[in-house]
């Protein structure tokens, strides 16, 4: 049982559902889902996900049998940590990192990044443990990463991407939030807020993780934008996002406000004080 008590060139963008990836500059990324090109660590932050965790891990192990799974549990009161321990005891490719309190999505992923780098993994995968991100789609994201992308976003707002189970107003809010982030940050990414993604750990190692400030929803924006600014090759792969079937969403007003505040602050600095941009 692992314990954690601390807070841890020009962009080329493309979308992909199958086959080779065509870049804007005419180059092609050859898509071959070859696990021999590097090991992957799937990071699953959890807080009260007892009802869905076992199924998600089972589907992950079936869909991407060569990947390892790290469950980062924030002292879930519903017994998620115990379920995670049972899964780890039954499968050597599953491990658990227990944290003493609810410390936030961003710090959970930072802890996972540290494990991935220390464990010599080539790829770090971010995804939800509530079933919203389909494990069956992970091989396509990994294939795009192995084709040469430093960051692969599982994208909802690209041709072929879709959302299942959201009412129109929730779609509108999500689309508007993505639009605000793109406009404020002058980003070319069409789903910069996506939480289903694959990162090359060599690119993660180039970031100053201590300078990451967002702890919730804004973490996804901050890290994707940091890699975009550094010229990482980024692919956006269409996915199907499915509304959770059990448990409650962890999205709160406070998390949304944090993300909006940071995006507007970074956008202002980008235009008027570029020397004060985050150095991640």
DSSP helix fraction: 25-40%
Cα gyration radius (Å): 18 Å
Q: Which CATH architecture?
A: Alpha-Beta Complex
CATH superfamily: Spore Coat Polysaccharide Biosynthesis Protein SpsA, Chain A
Main pleated-sheet profile: 9 strands, mixed
Into which percentage range does the β-strand content fall? Answer: 15-25%
Number of strands: 13
Integer average pLDDT = 87
CATH class category name: Alpha Beta
C-alpha end-to-end distance:
30 Å
Helix and strand composition category: alpha/beta
CATH topology: Spore Coat Polysaccharide Biosynthesis Protein SpsA, Chain A
Compressed to H and E, one letter per element, the order equals: EEEEEHEHEHEHEEHEHHEEH
Explain briefly what this protein structure is.
The chain has 280 residues and is of the alpha/beta class.
Overview of this protein structure:
Strand 3 (21-22) and strand 4 form a beta hairpin. The protein has helices at residues 50-63, 80-90, 105-118, 138-146, 168-185, 201-204, 218-229, 253-272, and strands at 2-3, 13-15, 21-22, 28-29, 40-46, 68-73, 94-98, 123-126, 151-155, 162-164, 197-200, 234-238, 240-242. It is of the alpha/beta class and 280 residues long.
